[in-house]
Amino acid sequence: MGSYPKFVAEYCKVWEKSGKEQFIKYVTQSIKDDDKSPLFTKSGKLSGLSLNIYDLLLSGLKGALKKDAVLSVLKEISTLHADIPSIILDVVCILDAETCTDVQSEHRANFCYIVRELESFMSDKLLKERLEIDTLQDVGTLKNKTFYTKFIKIKTKLYYKQRKFNLFREESEGYSKLIVELNQEISEDTEWKTILEIIQSLIGCFNLDPNRVLDIILESFEARPQLDKLFIALIKNYMGDPQVISEVLGFKLGNMEVLESYKEPPPLMTVIALLLQHQVISLDDIYPWLRPDDSIMAKEADKEVKSAQEYIRKLNIVSTKGPQANAPTDFIEEKADPQEYWSNQKLVLSEALLKVTAWREFAALAARLPTAAMPARPATALCNMVHAIIEPLYRTHCRVAPKIIGRPVPPLKSKLAPRACKTFDDMKDTVIPALILLGPSLHYDPILMYKIIRILRTARSLQQDPLHHETLTVLDAAILPALTLMEGNCCMSEEVYTLLKLYPYQCRYCLYSRWKNESGERIPSLMRVRGNSLQRIKHIMKRVSKENTKPQGRLIGKLSHAAPAFLFDYMLLQIQTYDNLIGPIVESLKYLTSLSLDVLGYCLLEALSVGRGSVSGAAHPPWLQALAAFAGAAFKKHNIELTALLQFVANRLKAQQSQDLLILKEIVQKMAGIEAVEEMTPEQLDAMAGGELLKGEAGYFSQVRNTRRSSARLKEAIVGNNLDISLCILSAQQRHCCVWKEYEDDNPSSGEAPGSQLKVVGRLADQCQDALVQLGTFLASSHAPDEYAARLPPLQELLRDYHVDADVAFFLHRPVLAQKIAAKCEYLRKSSEVKSSNLEKTIEIYTTAAKDSLEPILHAITPLLPSRVWEDISPEFYVTFWSLSMYDLRVPVESYEREVGRLKSSAAAAAKDNSQGTKGKKEQERFNTLIDKLQEERRRQSEHVSRVLARLSRECRGWFPARAAKSAKNETVTRLMQLCLFPRCVFTAADALYCAEFVHTVHALKTPNFSTLLCYDRLFCDITYSVMSCTEGEAARYGTFLCKVLGTAMRWHADKSVFQRECADYPGFVTKYRVSNQFTEANDHVGYENYRHVCHKWHYKITKAMVVCLDSGDYVQIRNALIVLIRVLPHFPVLEKLAQIIERKVEKVKEEEKNQRQDLYVLATGYSGQLRNKVSNMMRESDFHQVVQLQVIEKHKAAVVPPTVLKEDPPASKHEESVMSPPHVLEVEKRESRNSDRRRDDSDREKESKRERATVKERVKEENRSKERSPRERSHREERYLESVSPPHDHRQPVSDDVERDVKRRKVETSGNGKGSKELDERSPEKEKRKTKLRGDERKERKMSRKRDRAEDSAILEQKRRREEQKAILKMGSHQNGSQEDHHYEKYHKREKSPYRDRSHEEPREKHTRRPNESKIRR
Predict the structure, then answer these.
(1) How far apart are alpha carbons 126 and 93 in whole angstroms?
(2) pLDDT band for position 1235 (50/70/90)?
(3) Cβ proximity of 31 and 38 under 8 Å
């Protein structure tokens, strides 16, 4: 039942209706057996009857019920059971105590009334027995006023007045006889009954006090505790009341003298232990007599904890008194005071219980003791008992060797001792609880610790581990804390790890966490060891350097054997602050045990998890970079399990956190020797096109053979936990996820400018890309082909289900496809029994194998892209492009020769070195073997490349459908750039080189319906959007691609013979495409000089794009422009004027960013220095291409348009074909070209003579005038200059009228009194020498400046007029979409959105309104 309010609610409010009946019914139900008290239920629990009676009486006192109603119910229930009146009076006594404080209150009056009425149905004797005298008088039960006086007299007589008889009536002879009988020579066969009869007769004869007799019996038992069998039976039968025995023992305990000379527990404690073991007395009976009190022990324990905390606090105080104050001083634990231990009767009794092997009683006593750790003596006694218990099991299963017998442990003698363990399950009863009770005190017995570890290890090796959870508990509670208290026991540390390594890292790391964070904070001894270790590691870390790694490493190793976690926390904290400690610390870790290295892995993971809060604001925070570098170096150098760290990275990627990919990147780089491609030199990139051996020897900074062991460990960790493909897919998905995730986290309200996180986002995306490439390369190189193919999901599944881009999917599948083709080729060769010398048949087999292997890929890819895509490029071309690599297209001959030369030099040096003896010969043999392998690899690659090129030459005719000749060639180039070139050229640097090489290969194969010239034109003419949409790494790769393509273009530009050989009769340089007549004529190709004009245009387009980016003020655009410029520096700029424009823009960036964005300033400074070094190799415009005078063309432009325009004729325009290139036009053009060459030579000679006759004064004036101009005016002039040499957007044309436009451009340049030559003079090298003399007449120069501006304005007006005339002339030409100018305006400039967004699903194909430079959809 409930309390008083509940009673009132349930009974009092409905008392008249049903409350009374319910209460009586409840009381009746409580009384089911007359023999048992109604206070308890059958199960022994309280029934609640007394509480309800209390609530009933309280209701009567407080007026909730009428007093008569209460009395009537009490009267009725008092007859139900004989104990009810007694229970009622017990409750009345309680109410009497509660109401006696205020005698005048209403409650007291009601109480007296109820008690007075109780006399009517209760015994008067019972009332007088139970109630106080004052209450009886108040109620009126005692009417005699002298009763209280008589009561006092009687009590005094009973308790204080002595009786008149002899107090020493016992005779001493009886006690002497008793002592003699108890201490005589008693054999083990003596029965207790005989002695008991003698004792009883002595008591009766001499009238002895039984309690004093019991005391003498106990004294005799103390003298001979080995006769426990006799005395236990005697005491049990002599005195049956354990309370009396406990009182006698308590009296003896209170008067027991504590001696410092004790070596064993006092005999009295042994007697008590035996009595407890044989259950003569109970622990509850004797425990109150033991001292000290539990509260005192608890205070002592708290005092010890506070003392340990104070000790640690003092260690952390930095003293300024000198180096001696900071010197490491080990904590020397004070020896425990023996007097303190022996005075603690509870601890001594614990030892005594263990001595007599009373395990259950000891466990019950230990559970009550408020101590943090078990003292040494009880711990040693418990260890001895456990030794005996596990002896049979240890000898059966865990002996070191059959012939090594060892020292056997005798079994326990007591029949009440725990039984010995014969099976592993038997350990659950006694041994496991005993080890848990021991806790850290297990370190007192290292031998027992060894035995326990071996037993648990043996149990773990069974198929069904019977002690799985128990082992983890023992490790947590006893073994690991005990290891901390051992002084540098490396053997024990290794033994512990042999057990720990059988558990997964989740269990181990959980144990390490509790070992470090929980055990070390609640046990004083562990706290002191922790403080001591921290002080010593601080002292060591101050002295760690590259020169003393050996001695300091030994100190670290010795210190880490016992308490590794505390040390590594501090070491990692120092590494995060000072990353130059990584190398020395990694070297010094070689003295660590396996357990310490495993704990280091946990501490590293914990440090990475704890540092999450400081990630924001940087892609790679310094602490993360330091920990990642340390992880890579440590995991490579030392055998530390990688699984946990790799799983941590995978979990972070699942949580859309890509920062931790830096860890994976460092680990793969250090352990597998695979560097990020962006960090490679051009020579290494060239070597990456070779075979695996060349890659290993010349492609990476570190030698692959030095990473074989660590690479195998990394593979085992990744593959063994199925993390290989998971990490690849997560990294690929995170490339796009990190952009949107980080951008959402960019909060402008935090004080940062909007978009300030773009730099961070770009670096995160690059990091995802680098990690993906590194991991994919490692998996492909470390797996067997069949194994790798079996683990990799199908290509269609990657693209469709995992939403992975084509570049990543084919990157992962490329080794699989190569292996399938090779296997199929080998199968066909064996089946056809063709010799390898038959080249034609080998090529046929290879082509068939490639077709069969790629057929499933074709079927999988075709449905994934819109059908209109396949109208411009074929699926075969798409799959071929993505399935090949640089290894398939070109043999890096220079890399092979360079590496072979290096190895030959090394072999010669090894042969000359006689100091190393046989080692030098072995090195020479190794070098010679490598040379042979490299040459063989080169031969195999050469054969493979020849087969691939032969296959491509057969397949290329179907790559671009014939429909491409009917529509604009821009569609084919657009698809090629959007789906193939742009996605892959920014994937890796090797892929960038591959894209350039593939375009050249397609051109070299004379692929039908493919225009190389148009493809290059689209690549160079508008790169602004491509540059600004790249990340930092993508910009570098894009620059590499442009550099390679520019190199090819400039190679053709530099040598006419090369152009004639590689381009003249190739379909890629055809300017007209005839559907009715498939063969081309000689005049349908671009000539060498026209090609040089086109190259000139491309350089101007690139310059203009770079100027737009550099002038934008946007961080990303400026950074990417500078990166691209650095990458293309070998081939751009090559014109003086363009180089000067770019140089001024870069100088402007340097001035603006010097104190703002330092990284841009550094980039600009670096590029500026490289550009200056190239000034001597710059070309003049007249050397770059022929400068044609405008008048030459104007004579004939009304009659004909030159045939150098890239056009496409529809089937119905046969008449136009005959009109566009009449024969007389060609003759006129050749004649005028010769005349223009002569005029150009004459004008050049004239200009040179004028420049030589120019005085120094004029040059000084011109330079002064250029200095006085404002930067704004100069930028306007440069823009006008670029506009003059390149038409504005509304007049942009393809490669059509390059000759006329170039003539106009140079006409404008030479107008305005030789302004072009003066600008060249302004930027002459003599400008630096005459800096101090540039102070001219300012007024005169301002006038001349105004005149010059007017002249320039007039030139611009003249230029506009000529453009309008040019429009009118060009309208005479035919174009399949009407006016060429209107077509180009509609196609290139009318749309306002980005030209790289594919909107083929929005607009019909026939309108040709898409921008030609469509790229892949950027992030």
Answers:
(1) 12
(2) low
(3) yes
Distance (Å, whole) CA 1330 – CA 1325? 10
The pLDDT confidence band at residue 1207, using thresholds 50, 70 and 90, is very low
Distances (CA, A) of 1140 to 151, 457, 467, 975, 1170: 128, 77, 81, 36, 13
Query: Which residue bears the tokens 């190709």?
Result: 1085
Distance of alpha carbon 1360 from alpha carbon 1362, whole angstroms: 5
186-203 core/surface letters (b: 16 or more CB in 10 A; e: else): beeeeebeebbeebeebb
∠ CA 360-365-366, nearest 5°, is 95
CA dihedral 95, 101, 102, 108 (to 10 degrees): 20
Which residues have C-beta within 8 Å of that of residue 302, sequence separation ≥ 6?
none
- Do the beta carbons of residue 432 and residue 473 sit within 8 Å? yes
Tell me if 742 sits within 8 A of 761, measured CB to CB: yes
Cα–Cα distance, 1308 to 1280 (Å, whole number): 10
Q: Which of 544, 558, 635 is nearest to 591 (CA)?
A: 558
User: What span, in angstroms and rounded, lies between the C-alpha atoms of 336 and 524?
Assistant: 14
Give the whole-angstrom CA distance, residue 965 versus residue 872.
10
Q: Residue 980: pLDDT above 90?
A: yes
Question: Other C-beta atoms within 10 Å of 1328: how many?
Answer: 7
Distances (CA, A) of 786 to 121, 722, 845: 101, 16, 21
Which is it for strands 1072-1073 and 1207-1208: parallel, antiparallel or unpaired?
parallel
d(CA 545, CA 528): 28
* 793, amino acid identity: P
More confident residue, 603 or 108: 603
Using an 8 Å Cβ cutoff, are 597 and 638 in contact? Answer: yes
- How far apart are alpha carbons 1247 and 1249 in whole angstroms? 5
The residues, any chain, with a CB within 8 Å of residue 158's CB and separated by 6 or more, are none
Q: Whole-angstrom Cα distance, residue 531 to residue 540?
A: 14
Encoding tokens for residue 301? 């324990």
User: pLDDT tens for residues 917-930?
Assistant: 677 788 888 889 99
Distances (CA, A) of 1070 to 89, 959, 970, 1004, 1060: 123, 18, 14, 14, 13
Three-class DSSP category at 1129: coil
Give the span between the Cα atoms of 405 and 394, in whole angstroms. 12
Tell me the β-bridge partners of 1070: 1085
3-state secondary structure of 701: coil
Is the alpha carbon torsion for 1282, 1166, 769, 608 positive or negative? negative
Q: Are 646 and 717 in contact (CB under 8 A)?
A: yes
Q: What is the DSSP letter of 143?
A: -
Question: How many angstroms separate the Cα of 366 from the Cα of each of 278, 285, 428, 436, 444?
Answer: 18, 16, 18, 11, 18
Mean pLDDT value of segment 1012-1018: 92
Residue 680 token pair:
């490679």
pLDDT (average), residues 59-72: 83
Would you tell me how many other CB atoms lie within 10 Å of the CB of residue 548? 13
- Return the SS3 of 1402: coil
The CA-atom distances, in angstroms, between 293 and each of 275, 344, 690, 795 are: 22, 9, 83, 76
Q: What is the DSSP string of 25-58?
A: HHHHHH---TTS-TTB-TTS-B-SHHHHHHHHHH
242 prior amide bond cis, ω within 30: no
Sequence-separated (6 or more) residues with CB below 8 Å from residue 906: 923, 927
Q: What three-state secondary structure class fits 1207?
A: strand
Query: Which of 871, 679, 692, 682 is closest to 766 using CA atoms?
Result: 679
Of 1331, 1192, 1347, nearest to 1263 (Cα)? 1331
User: What element of type H or E holds 1208?
Assistant: strand 1207-1208
Q: Which tens digits make up the pLDDT trace of 785-829?
A: 888 888 899 988 988 888 888 999 999 999 999 999 989 888 888
